[in-house]
Amino acid sequence: MKQLLGRAFFLLTIALLSCSKKSAPINDIQPPKDLTLSAIVSTNGTGSVQFTASATNATTYEYAFGDGQYQLVSSGVVTYQYAATGNYTVTVTAKNSIGQSISQSTQVSVTKTPQLIWSDEFETAGAPNTNKWGYDIGTGSGGWGNNELQYYTNRLTNAVVSNGTLQINALKETYSGSAYTSARLLTKDKFSFKYGKVEVRAKLPAGVGTWPAIWMLGSNIGTAGWPACGEIDIMEHRGSELNKIFSTVHYPGHSGGGGVGSTLTIADASTAFHVYSTEWSATSIKFYVDNQLIFTFPNDNTLPFNQNFFIILNVAMGGTFGGAVDPAFSNGSMEIDYVRVYN
Hints:
This protein has 343 residues and is mostly beta strands.
């Protein structure tokens, strides 16, 4: 029995000594030091920056790029592409294997030149390009949910390209039970995108009761429904408030008249072309007319504005926004010079 106890004590002593020897190197691990950080900013307008960090005793490097994004790398070298022009404070934290750390920051000034990824310049006369545009047809449910009065068609009389522009024509005519016709073009299932800049140069109709719109919907509308898919109204206008431009977003809790947005009154919306645009990112959606800021909406990951959207162009008649139509109205057109999308 004494021999067994002695042997057990011997084995336990060996085990404890082994554990002691294994843990001993932890005390010898040195904290990171002599951290350096350099940045090479691309001059080609892509927003790309190459960062190089180096530190003695470091095993990982965590970058905070100053725009809310982070990245962990082992080599210390990383290339990051910024989404927008700006000045950013970049911080890198070097850590060793037991979590000891040291940090260093630097400032970078980035120029991001938008790259054209999709456009229609409307240079080919005839019907709109079917590779780029489809149509909503008919009256929709309850006048497309807004008690609108028009019947949307795909006829050339309602949507035609000529002399370098697209004309969407609202007409007073009896058609399939409706008192007016018009067109609603959309890029659904043909083109969609996530984040970027949209520019549309357009001239708007003037008749009381007209409701032209340049807008976007989330591509998941077929499964999520509206307003869960999100809606970005780049431009809306009604003939009863001539020259008053509306820019709005809709999402759960802010549907219909509860949309969040603002307005800008311009001088000649129906007699001159203006550029209606939006700049959309993970942090904001900004609306402009001729580069004049109308409204900034703060975006974040709890909202439905972080997925692909498609573009819609239409002229509605009457409805909850357009209001009563002037009995003397006969026709009105939204004329569009181009639609351009940049990343």
